[in-house]
Each structure stands twice: as C-alpha cells, then as structure tokens.
Specification:
Layout lengths: L12 E6 L6 H12 L2 E4 L6 H8 L6 H20 L4 E4 L5 H8 L4 E8 L2 H10 L10 H7 L9 E5 L4 H24 L5
Parallel strand pairs: 1-3, 1-4, 2-3, 4-5
Length: 191
C-alpha cells in the first residue's frame, strides 16, 4: 500500500472522481480512499430528498437546484480541511462553475475524470441496482458535462478496461500531482 507524504506540513489532498452517472465514480473514489487511507465521500449523499425524487422520476436537476447541493458539499469538506484530513469525493463535476467552487477549498486538488462512451455507460447503468439515477437521464448528463480539457488539475481516465485496471491507471496519473506537492512543501519559503 502506498502512503501519501507526511501530511502534518502539507495541505490535505482532495481527489475528486468526476464523470456522468454510471461512469464508476463511487467505485473508483472508494478504491482510491482505501489505497491512500483517505476519507471517502459521495456527493449523492448531499442531495435533498426532493432532488433525489426528481431524478428518480427521470427529471434532470436544474443548475439552480444544484446550488445548495454544491454548497453543502463544500461546507462538509471545509470541516475535513480544518482537521487536515484528506478525502476522495465521488462527484459528477458536470459544470465548470462547480469544479471552480471546489477549487476554492483549502486542499491540494486533483480531478479524476472518468470518460467512456454513452453506450458503455448506458450498459453499465442498466446492470446496476438500487440507484436513484435512471439510465434515461444519461443524455442530459452528457449534455450538461462541460469540457475540462483545458483544466490543468483534471486527468482523464478511460473507463473501458476492467475496474482494477482503471484504478491502476488513476493511481499512475495521480502520483505525479502528489509527488509535486511533496517537493514544493520541502522547499524553503513554500507554505
């Protein structure tokens, strides 16, 4: 098991696993949390009952309805940051404005964008059980996902391989960010 650098002198880390519903965010974020011994959070847990019911009925949320949701996530993460606790977060990250809000938090942040074709994700969504998000909302998820290719802290990961390989690929892409963070903290005059 890989251990992150000594966190006493570093900002805590926030690994945000993003993508449309059904891309594997929860599975990957949980695996990364276990690997790094970070706290795991699922953004779905911060939706109101009304929002969950609306999505379960096949009606996508409006941007206005997402505002209190993102606010609640940020407030919760600030508590973890104050405790110098690193986290992983499974979070759709559809809107750049939401990603920018998370960037304001006092963490070293890496976004892991799980990318896949609509047909592959639809197939996976139809196979899962007990989730409030129906496959019928997949089109709206893809339509809402704003491009992140020009955001330096976003790494894109292809989800077509087996989950274990996807996780391995994530770790390879995350490690350089964590290594840079450790080097910067060891230099004089760097907070």
């Amino acid at each position: 098991m890989s251990h992150p650098p000594n966190q006493s002198s570093l900002r805590p880390v926030l690994l945000i696993v993003m993508g449309v519903s059904g891309s594997g965010k929860s599975s990957v974020a949980e695996a990364l949390a276990q690997h790094y011994q970070y706290h795991y959070l699922d953004a779905d847990d911060f939706h109101s009952d009304e929002a969950k019911a609306q999505m379960a009925a096949g009606v996508p949320l409006t941007d206005e309805m997402r505002v209190p949701w993102v606010h609640n996530i940020c407030a919760h993460l600030k508590d973890y940051a104050q405790k110098n606790a690193s986290c992983t977060l499974a979070f759709s990250g559809l809107r750049r404005s939401h990603r920018d809000q998370l960037r304001q938090l006092p963490f070293t942040i890496v976004f892991v964008y799980l990318c896949g074709t609509k047909s592959l994700i639809a197939e996976r969504m139809s196979a899962r059980e007990g989730h409030f998000m129906p496959a019928s909302l997949l089109d709206s998820q893809f339509a809402s996902m704003e491009d992140s290719s020009d955001e330096a802290d976003v790494v894109a990961i292809d989800i077509s391989p087996e989950l274990s390989q996807v996780i391995t690929n994530c770790l390879h892409r995350i490690e350089p960010f964590l290594a840079t963070r450790a080097v910067e903290s060891s230099q004089p005059g760097v907070d």
